[in-house]
Amino acid sequence: MELFKVTLSLIVIASLSATLSLAHPGFNFGWGGHGGSSGWSFSLFPEFYQFSCPQANDIVMSVLERAIANEPRMAASLLRLHFHDCFVQGCDASVLLDDSATIVSEKNSGPNKNSLRGFEVIDEIKAKLEEACPQTVSCADILALAARGSTVLSGGPNWELPLGRRDSKTASLTTSNTNIPPPNSTLQNLVTLFKRQGLDEVDLVALSGGHTIGMARCVTFKQRLYNQNGNNQPDQTLDKGYYYNLKSVCPKSGGDNNISPLDFAAPAKFDNTYFKLILWGKGLLTSDEVLFTGSAGTTMQLVKRYAEDESLFFDQFAKSMVKMGNISPLTGFKGEVRKNCRRVD
């Protein structure tokens, strides 16, 4: 009788697994103690689409190659999209949702409005994946794949990327306004906001190194040039020559949308120059420079080490990107796989 019960249980489990695989190809059961009292655990793993959409990464890369060749800055924009997604509700593609009857879009938050870019590239990737593997690859995984691909295509590190995220049916404008570190952050504020996501000071410095590519708007560093401490004086940690260069791009009045490279030495190349510039007082944003001047030994030493050793930075950046990509993902029965990344199904 006991043998019959065990056999019946296995048949039920196999049937359930098969049903879920049909409903969401790529869905997988994991065995282990992390799934609560049921004993099921749903975790991210690199081979998630091995059978349901083996060409997923190739499709992502083909779109990225064209987009980044056309506009090298797009690589940084897509990397930033993943970051701004994960810091709000976890890595669930909530940042991609447009306003609707039920959604107040995160695109309208202070850190995102008139600033976040790359949505059309994500749309193109999603459309091609829907053609090849309908309702299979989530928008949250597309953001993670696009961030990795953009890093690689800019000359940065590659990494094994855990997959299997599902898409949120909600967004949070409020959390987007409070959880994403502003460009004028103090070091303590940065540490606190990263810690809130389970990320430590090593992750903070390594992930800030993503600023080795891309541009920032004048409005994000204007305070440093004209009124850093409320005394109508520039930030004293700014290199003087760099300060005068920035003033020519970013006037005291107007010009808020003028842009300047975060790493002026090689703005489209993913390397460790960002950290060298910080050592020389040539970090663009307050949140860049405070990693070295913010009187915390840990971040200061890490800036020095990454400036000296690019391979050390690359290795830690990859590890920290995986860690960030694992922030509160929706897996298993949670969320959905959107057909269109801009709206809930």
From TrEMBL:
GO biological process: hydrogen peroxide catabolic process; response to oxidative stress
Domain Plant heme peroxidase family profile stretches: 43-345
Keyword Signal carried by entry: yes
PROSITE patterns assigned to the protein according to its UniProt record, in alphabetical order: PEROXIDASE_1 (PS00435), PEROXIDASE_2 (PS00436), PEROXIDASE_4 (PS50873)
InterPro entries hit by this protein: Haem_peroxidase (IPR002016), Haem_peroxidase_sf (IPR010255), Peroxidase_pln (IPR000823), Peroxidases_AS (IPR019794), Peroxidases_heam-ligand_BS (IPR019793), Secretory_peroxidase (IPR033905)
Active site positions, chain numbering: H84
Site (Transition state stabilizer): R80
SUPFAM superfamilies given in the database record: Heme-dependent peroxidases
Binding site for substrate: P181
Intracellular or extracellular location(s): Secreted
Record bears the keyword Secreted: yes
Binding site for Ca(2+) 1: D85, V88, G90, D92, S94, E106
One GO cellular component term: extracellular region
Chain sites annotated for binding Ca(2+) 2: T212, D263, D271
Cofactor(s) required, per the database record: heme b; Ca(2+)
UniProt function note: Removal of H(2)O(2), oxidation of toxic reductants, biosynthesis and degradation of lignin, suberization, auxin catabolism, response to environmental stresses such as wounding, pathogen attack and oxidative stress. These functions might be dependent on each isozyme/isoform in each plant tissue.
Name of the protein this chain belongs to: Peroxidase
Species this protein is from: Quercus rubra (Northern red oak)
Upper classification of the organism: Eukaryota, Viridiplantae, Streptophyta, Embryophyta, Tracheophyta
